[in-house]
Amino acid sequence: MSAQTPQTPSAGLSRVPYLPGLDGLRAIAVVAVMIWHADHHWLDGGFLGVEVFFVISGYLITLLLLAEFEKSGRIARGQFYLRRARRLLPALYVMMAALAIYIAAFYPETRYDTRGDFLAGLFYVSNWYQIFVGQGYAAGEAFVPLRHLWSLAVEEQFYLVWPLVMGAILLRVRNPRRLPRVGLWFIGTSVFVSLVVAAVFVSGPVATSCGGEFNDGCWQVGDRWINVNEWLYLGSFSRSSGLLLGAGFALLWRPAAILRGPLRNRGRRLDLIAIVGMLLLVWFFWAMYLFEGAVYNPWLFRGGFFLTGLATLLVIAAATHEGAATGRLLGNPLFLWLGTRSYGLYLYHWPIYQIIRKQAQIELSVGEFILAMVLTCVVTEASYRYIETPIRKGQLRPLLRSVRRTTWTLVATLSMLAVLALAVVSFAVADDHCVGEVSCANEQNAPEETVPATQPSVPGDTTVTTATTTTVPKEPQAHIAIGESVMLGAAPQLQSAGVFVDAREDRGPEGVKNTVIKLRDAGDLGEGSEIVIQVGTNAPMSQGELDAIMAELPDDVGPVWFMTLHAPGIQWIPDNNELIRNMPNLYPGLVQVIDWDTESANVDLCEDDVHISCNGSLPAIQYTNLILEALQLPLLPEPAS
Questions:
Q1: β-pair type (295-296, 291-292)
Q2: Residues 244 and 95 in one domain
C-alpha cells in the first residue's frame, strides 16, 4: 500500500493538488486491514482495504502521469521509477534486514522456510512466489512474516508497466477531449477482468494442497499444481481490476478540470454520494468474508471486488472535490497521520504480528493487538521520520555523511552491517526442505520420492546427533493431543486429566504438521510420547497430507491415534473419515483410530451438530473420556444429572 506524495500544483487541467481526503481514505483502509490480520472474526471483510488501496493507487498514479505529460509533453519514466524507488524501497529493505537478523538470532528453524519470501520481496514478485508454493492467506499455521508483501508486488508491477502504457496512449491521444473515452476503455477492461475472475473462480470446497486424490480447485501447470482461487486472489492480472478502475476514473475525474466545469457547484450532492460509498465500504468490510474452511466466498470473486472498487470511487469523487465536505472530514489530523504513514503501518504491522504469535491464522488477543499496534506505530513513525522522508527528499548523501561524522556512528553502522551479513549467510546455508502447501504436496506426490536420511552416520562415532539447541533437553510430554476447534472445546478437561493440548480453530493438515514440528523441536514431543490427532473438519484432505504429518513424528513415539470426524452436511467428511480409518493399514502397529464419528451420536452437541462447547460440560467430558480411554488414563467423572 504505497502512500502517494502530494505534488506541487502545476498549470493545467490535469494538475494534482494535495488531496487530504485520500489520505483519510487510506487511513480507513489500512486500519481495516490491520484489524483483519489480527483476527478475521473482528472484521470479516477487512482484507478489502487492500482493494481500496489499489483503486486509490490507480487513480493517483494516472493523474500524476497525466499532469506530467500535460506539462512537458512526455513522461520521464526514469524519474518516475526513481521517485517510486525512493518512496518504497528504503522502508521495505530496512524492515527485511531487521527481520532477517531477528530470525537468524531468535527463530533460526524458520530460515529456510522464509528464504524464498525474502528473495521474492527483494524483487517485488511475492505474489507469484506465494502462488507457486501455495502460501496464500488460506494456508495454515506457518511462520510467514512477509506474506503481506504480495499486494506491494501487485502495485509495483503495475507501476513498472503503467508509465509505458500511459506514455503510448497519450502520444496517440493528443486531444484532451478524447481522454474520457480512454477512461471508459480502462473501466471496461476492469469489467472484463472481473468477468474473467468470476468465470474462473471455483466454488464449493477446494483442495488446500493439490496433486493428491482430491484436486478440486487446482490446475496442473507443467509438473506443478497451483490453487486456482489463491491465484485469483494474489495474481497481478486478476487483481488489476481495482487499479484499472482507479486509472479509468482519473481520466474522467480530474480535480482541476472538475472545478472549471458544471460540477464545480455540486459539492453537497457529492457528499451524499460519498455517504453511500462509505456505507457500502463499511458493509463490505463487515460482511464480505474471504473463506470459511476450504470454501472461498463466491460473492467476493463474482462481483465483490468490483463493487468495492465502485464504492471507493464514490468516496474519491467527493474527497477530491474542493466544494465537498468529505475531503475535509476525511482529512482530519488523526486520519492524516494514519494516511500519510499508511505504507509504513502496512509494511511493519504484519511482521510484528508474526513475531508475537509465531504462526499465521492464530488470532491475537485484545492485549496482544494493543501491544502490536503500539509497536507498529512507534516503528512506523521512526521509519517515516528518519528513513523514508529524508531519502524521499533526496537527502541520502547527507544521511550517509552523518554516519561517518563520528567514530561511534561509523562503528555502530559497520557492526550492524556485519550482523546483517552473518544473518544472510545463515539463511544461505540453512537446510533445504519443502515450503508451502502446494510445494510440499508436489514433492510428496512426485512419482519417485526419495526420503532423505534423518542424520548421516559417521563410522566409529557412537554419539547421538541431535538438533543444535542452547537449552537443556527436557522430558517429552507423555500424552499429547493436537486438533482443531472440536478438540479446543475440550481443552480444559483434557489438560486437567494430564494431556498436553495444542488445538486451534480452522486448523488443517498443514497446521498439524507444523505443530508436530514445533513440539518436536521444543522437546515436548519425543521418546514415548503418545499422540492423539484430530484433523479434517475444515477442508478435504489427501493421503499425502496425512503422510506428511507422520513423516515429521520422531521414530520413537507411539502409539498415534487419529480421531474420525463428525460434521453432517459437509461433503468432504466421509472421504476424510475413510482416509483416517485406513491409516492403521498403512502404519500397522503405530496408528490406531478413535471413532468420534460413531461415539458422537451419544453426545448432546451444539446446534451445528459439530462442536462440543455447548450444553454444559458433559459433551466435553464425554469427548475427553473417549480419548482418555484410548490412552488408558483415568476417566473424568460425569456431572450428576
A1: antiparallel
A2: yes
Please name which of 340, 377, 260, 392 lies closest in space to residue 20, comparing C-alpha atoms.
340
Residue 445 falls inside a structural domain: no
From first CA to last CA, the distance across the chain in angstroms is 58
Residues 6+ apart with CB under 8 A from 33: 1, 46, 47, 49, 50, 346
How many Cα atoms sit within 13 Å of 387 on the Cβ side? Answer: 19
* 198: exposed, middle or buried (Cβ count in 10 Å: 0-12, 13-18, 19+): middle
* Residue 361: inside a domain: yes
Say whether pTM exceeds 0.90: no
Name 74's Cβ contacts closer than 8 Å, sequence gap at least 6.
68, 167
The SS3 assignment for 482 reads strand
Task: Please compute, for residue 457, the number of CA atoms within 13 A of its CA located in the half-sphere on the CB side.
Answer: 4
Total structural domains in the chain? 2
CATH number, position 557: 3.40.50.1110
Q: What phi-psi label fits residue 436: left (phi over 0), alpha (psi between -120 and 50 degrees) or beta?
A: left
Average pLDDT over the chain, rounded to whole?
Answer: 86
Distance of alpha carbon 312 from alpha carbon 21, whole angstroms: 12
Eight-class DSSP state of 430: S
pLDDT mean over 510-514: 85
Peptide bond into 559 cis (omega under 30): yes
As a whole number of angstroms, the distance between CA 386 and CA 409 comes to 15
Q: Which of 150, 138, 141, 139 is nearest to 300 (CA)?
A: 138
Residue 149 grid coordinates = 508483501
Distance between CA atoms of 33 and 290, rounded to whole angstroms? 13
**Average pLDDT of span 248-254:** 94
Whether residue 554 lies inside any domain: the answer is yes
To the nearest 5 percent, what fractions of the chain are helix, strand and coil?
Answer: 60, 5, 35
Do 123 and 267 share a domain, yes or no?
yes
- Among 272, 240, 250, 241, smallest CA distance to 320 is for 250
Residue 49 has pLDDT above 50, yes or no: yes
Residue 443 maps to a domain: no
Q: For cell 468529505, what's the residue?
A: 326
Bridge partners, 291 (sequence order) = 296
Side-chain-side CA neighbours of 333 within 13 Å: the count stands at 0
- β-strand partners of 592: 561
| pLDDT (tens digit per residue) in 72-81 | 888 999 999 9
Among the candidates 403, 427, 446, a domain finishes at 403
Cα separation, 282 vs 621, in Å, equals 42
Q: Using DSSP, how many helices (H) and how many strands (E) does the chain show?
A: 28, 9
Q: Sign of the CA dihedral 458, 463, 467, 468? A: negative
Cell output for 227: 490453487
* Domain assignment of residue 345, given as a range: 20-403
Interatomic CA distance for residues 284 and 580, integer angstroms: 39
